[in-house]
Amino acid sequence: MRRVAEQPFSKSLSTTFLKARLQQAALQLNAMANDNQENLFDKLKSIVAEFAPQAQVIDIQGFGSGNINDTFWVSLQDAEYQFLILQRINHGVFREPQLVMQNMRTYTDHVRDRLAQSPLDRRWELPEILPTVQGQDYSQTTDGEFWRSLSFIENSKSYDAITNSQQAREVGYALGTFHYLTSDLAPEKLVDTIAGFHITPLYLQQYQQVIAEGKNTQTSPEITYCHQIIEQHQKLVHLLEDAKASGKLPLRVMHGDPKVNNILFDQSTQLAVSIVDLDTVKSGLIHYDIGDCLRSGCNPAGEETRKWTEVRFDMDLCQEILSGYKAIANSFLTKTDEDYIYDSIRVITFELGLRFFTDYLAGNTYFHIKYPEHNLLRSLVQFRLLESFESQIK
Ligand code: GN1
Ligand code: MG
Predict the structure, then answer these.
(1) Ligand 1 pocket mutation pick from 3, 63, 68, 349 by most atoms within 8 angstroms of CB
(2) Neighbours of 1 (CB within 10 A)
(3) Ligand 1 pocket check: which of 29, 67, 85, 354 to mutate, most ligand atoms within 8 Å of Cβ?
(4) pLDDT by residue (tens digit) across 203-258?
(5) How far is residue 329's CA from residue 309's CA, in Å, rounded to a whole number?
(6) Cys-Cys crosslink for 302: which of 29, 161, 287, 290, Cβ 3.0 to 4.6 Å?
(7) What gap in Å lies between CA 9 and CA 296, rounded to an integer?
(8) Among all ligands shown, which has an atom nearest to the Cα of 278?
(9) Low-confidence residues of the chain, pLDDT below 50?
(10) pTM assigned to the model
(11) CA 7 to CA 249: how far, in whole Å?
């Protein structure tokens, strides 16, 4: 999906056209489904005014392919920033959005200071959190919605799947840079914004509970396949949590969602310049990040493909991502950390498949979907990817 709004904007776009396009985007993103679509444009304009009161809105478009929050790209005139990102934080998922913003402040302040003291030798950007006119990091509407605004990283774009080895090394470099720049941030300074996030055994419990409730009794060969994969991987579930409990793997700052399309590339140099989507930055195992980055980076078909039987794990891309990662991470990566890398790919790919499948069985209450079987298809993609990986490391 497009992650870069078409630029430059045209001042001649009519309000009627903007409204129609925005409504279509919102429906496609399944965003704002409960909102009055007629008023969407006006509503977004009034939220923009909370962050940039003097600005004139030139254009607003649906943006990105997030499964949780609703994201818009805004083009402005007479404002400090020509472009900004506007996001409605899903507070069904992030129960305390103010804590998400607190973490984002802690993280960006820390990294900004560190970069000021010891700059990298290449472009690396952090999104700015734009305050409201009252000086807050988010705006809360009268009906309880949480909105935030972030600067748009100039001349950048992201990809839903990696297409070449240079991109792969850059993806590894980006994750390594994130871990490197946070390696001196005490993880306990960050709060947990989603209870149980990336605790694989808890996802298994949720699956078992949904089965016990018997909400979805449909059967099909695909559904049977998913149940079988879950049955076969019971031991895997505890692998990283056991390593954490025994102290083999230490708690560090983790990103929580370093999938490929959260890494931004400079459009001119094609080098990675930022890692975004900072909602899940918290204390945890960096192995969940390494695994997540590799499971998304080594799936050339992309996690949204419907051709799930064709999904394969690309080992060449995996080696490239790891070489990019290690080039910067060797300052903090231990031998034990390295020993767990392949296991972390297995755990996180399994975990994501399990999360999608459980949400499908539970009636799709967590991830945004675009069609009824969407979460089932997503879980098939992850389970097939897992099998492909496992077949190559035997
Ligand atoms: C969700 O919303 P998005 O796309 O950034 C999810 C991640 C998953 C990802 C899979 C808070 O992230 O954990 O890995 O979908 N985020 C949350 O695409 O659950
Ligand atoms: Mg995310």
Answers:
(1) 68
(2) 14
(3) 67
(4) 999 999 999 999 888 999 999 999 999 999 999 999 999 999 999 999 999 999 99
(5) 34
(6) 161
(7) 32
(8) 2
(9) 1-10
(10) 0.92
(11) 45
